[in-house]
Structures are given as C-alpha cells and as structure tokens.
Amino acid sequence: MAVEFATIASGSSGNSVYFGTEYTKILIDAGLSGKKIQNGLKDIGVLGSDIDGIFVTHEHIDHVAGIGVLSRRFNIPVYATEGTWNCMPSSVGKIESENKRVISKNEKCVINDLCVTPYAIPHDAGQPVGYNVMTEKFKVSIATDIGHVTEEIMENIKDCDLLLLESNHDVEMLKNGDYPYPLKQRILGKKGHLSNETAGKLLAWVICQNSKLKNVFLGHLSKENNTPKTAYNTVKDILEGYDIKTNVDFNLYLAARYGVERIIKPM
Ligand SMILES: [Zn+2]
Ligand SMILES: [Zn+2]
User: What's the pLDDT at 85?
Assistant: First the structure.
C-alpha cells in the first residue's frame, strides 16, 4: 500500500494535482485541457477512467478549464462549494446533474479510503476552498490561491504530512514589474495571492508545530513576478532564520508550471 501525490500543472496557466491510493484516485482542480491532464496522468500510469472525483478549489479558469471535458468523457463526479458552482464559467460546459456534487467547508467527504475536507480560504472568487485529503495514516494539505494567511488556514494545515503551498510572487518583482496598477493591487490584496516571503513564514510556523511534515511543494508561481530560484531561495532563507534546514529537516520541491512532479510514499 502506498500513497501517491503528483502535481500535473501549477501556475496561472493551469493547475491540477493528483492524489491516489491503490483504491481511490482523485484530482484537485483540472485547470488545463482534458488532453493535457490525461497526458500528465499517463506519465504516472493513471488513466482518466481511474479518477474517482475532481475536487475544485474555485472557479477561476486556471482551476476548472478541463473539469467539464473530463467529467463528460469519463463520467467523473465534480465536487465544489455552492458558491463555486454558482460562479462556474459557462466554458466548462454541461456537467450531468448526478456528477455535480455540492460540498461545504469543514464537511468531510469520504470516497473509499480517502477523506476529503474543504476549508475556507480568502481569494477573490465565489466561495473558494483549500483541501485536506486524508488516508488512515497520511494527510495532504492543498493551500493555493490565498490572499493572506488566516487562522483557519493555519489550523487546517498544521498537522499535515505533505503540503502544497502557494508561493506566487516576489513582492519587489511585482511592484517593479509591468503589470497594470489595479492588477498589482489585486494580487497584493487580501484576496489575491501569497508572496514567497509570506509562504516562507507560514511554512516555518507549520514546521515548528509539526515534525511530521517532510515534503513541501511550492506552487502557483507567477511567470512574470517570480522565478523558481527566487521562490525556492526566499523560502529556504526564511526557514534558515528559524534554524530549519531545507532538505535536511524536510524536502522542498517546486511544482512545475507544466509537467509532473511526483512523490510515492509507502505506507
Ligand atoms: Zn489560480
Ligand atoms: Zn484564483
């Protein structure tokens, strides 16, 4: 028995995360074409028809672009909050009513040996959520598209074994970059995206609480206002200030914009 976690794509051009056990396989978001997601799954030996559910964080197109196609093609249930369903872009197309599942924050959704629980996050969307996915022995937390750190987020991710955390931008690169002023304000705002620095501080807090956290992926990196190296080094430097040694005390990975990054953990 093993659990497998993989990022299939991460960033403003598309997000999709895979998590599976021998019995249950799910996606968190499917924000690129159905074809690209199927190709990503193929790289890890999973078929579209193996997927038991797609859990949606929020309705932005970089998180939902492929959910309709995949749901129709493989008859996959799609789970989202009521507020997310209400704001779903029409480009997603028709999803059969029996595959349209409504979930509520903090309510457990059990599929075979997986328990998926959404929690509220601050982001400029209908009713956005992050997710905790648990097996009997392993907990994965997904925390991206976060404007600022809330107590609710801290509470939800503090005891995870594996974390996908947004490290969207370098504040100076964003401020000095070419984005129009309103867009800069949106990203920096309380319902925008998390900076490398805030991600580093939050991660330091989690690791100080929890020695179980051994694998961390930084994700949703901005193409214009960040580089993988900047994100990685900023977070690593902040952790060093707390006496936490990256790749000694825990492993730090970057979720690639395109292409699979994967971890298999025997249980
Ligand atoms: Zn996004
Ligand atoms: Zn978003």
Answer: 98
Domain that holds residue 247: 2-266
Distance 50 CA to ligand 2 centre (A): 27
Least Cα distance to 224 among 197, 184, 192 occurs for 184
Q: Is the pLDDT of residue 266 over 80?
A: no
| pLDDT tens figures, 155-165 | 999 999 999 99
Q: Which CATH number fits the domain that encloses residue 203?
A: 3.60.15.10
Find, among 231, 222, 221, the residue nearest to 179 by Cα: 222
**CA 126–ligand 2 middle distance (angstroms):** 10
Could you tell me the distance, in angstroms and rounded to a whole number, from the CA of residue 125 to the centre of ligand 2? 7
Q: Which ligand number lies closest to the CA of residue 16? A: 1
Going from the Cα of 243 to the center of ligand 1, the distance in angstroms, rounded, reads 31
pLDDT tens track for 79-114: 999 999 999 999 999 999 999 999 999 999 999 999
Q: How far, in Å, from the CA of 153 to the mean position of ligand 1? A: 17
> Average pLDDT of the chain?
96
* Count of the separate structural domains present in the chain: 1
Cα(122) to centroid of ligand 2, in Å?
10
Cβ partners under 8 Å of residue 238, min gap 6: 197, 200, 201, 203, 204
Separation of 87 CA from ligand 1 center, angstroms? 15
The mean pLDDT value for 239-262 works out to 94
pLDDT at 210: 85
Lay out the sheet containing 215-219: strands in order across. Answer: 109-111, 114-120, 129-134, 139-143, 162-166, 215-219, 251-254
Ligand 1 centroid to Cα of residue 159, in Å, is 24
Assign 3 to helix, strand or coil: strand
pTM of the model: 0.97
